[in-house]
Amino acid sequence: MAEHSEESSSKPVSLMEKIVDKLHGHDDSSSDSDNEKSEPSASSIKANIYRLFGRERPVHKVLGGGKPADVFLWRNKKISAGVLGGATAVWVLFELLEYHLLTLVCHCLILSLAILFLWSNASIFINKAPPRILEVSIPKDLAVNVALSLRYEINRAIAVLREITSGQDLKKFLAVIAGLWVLLVLGSCCNFMTLFYIMVVTLHTVPVLYEKYEDKVDSFAEKAMTEIKKQYKVFDAKVLSKIPREPLKDKKH
């Protein structure tokens, strides 16, 4: 009788354990489904975040990826510091010390040719091998590819200028005029070497700072773009809409 009572008491316990396990399994599955439902919502919220210039890719991909992007974003600090230090040395040499480019090239060529010439002749008396001078030649495929790329960029620039002068896109026209005006002001303040050095320093500082403070910059840019659009609408309503425009005539081919 005691054994029978123990078996009867163990059955309810096992049934209760099964019910509890099923309930836990149902809760886990429901929580997993809730997590799966929340993931798309999080991704959709992330996709709706405003990004500067409407970009959809990371900063590294926008800069072209590869080694140049690594240099601009300081992924390899030694190379980035070397490039920035070399540009600084060149700027100090030509701007602060007023050393001329042609003079520097001639001095370097005279020094290198003199060293190689003396080494080649002195190797006979020193009983050492003469210097190995590498044969350098530009491959035909590389020259053709560079020429084709340059031709493509020039044609694209000409097409953009033609589109701007046609008077169909006012925003692009104003953007180009503003960019040329900024270059005009910078050109009047500094020469080409200083402007080139400013560009190098900007490329080595602005992208890495933007990548570090991306969210703050994008939120500020969103507010600024909203305000600019409001001001542009006011300017369009008061000024641009009152400018008379002639209808485009159909061209006869």
TrEMBL record:
Membrane-traversing stretches: 79-94, 100-119, 173-200
UniProt cross-references to PROSITE patterns, sorted A to Z: RETICULON
Reticulon domain ranges (all copies): 68-253
Superkingdom, taxonomy of origin: Eukaryota
One GO process term, biological-process aspect: response to bacterium
GO CC annotation: endoplasmic reticulum membrane
Keywords: Endoplasmic reticulum, Membrane, Transmembrane, Transmembrane helix
Pfam assignment, any one: Reticulon
Range of residues in the leader sequence: none
Main subcellular location of this protein, as a coarse class: endoplasmic reticulum
PANTHER family: RETICULON (PTHR10994), RETICULON-LIKE PROTEIN (PTHR10994:SF190)
Protein name: Reticulon-like protein
Organism of derivation: Elaeis guineensis var. tenera (Oil palm)
Gene: LOC105048255
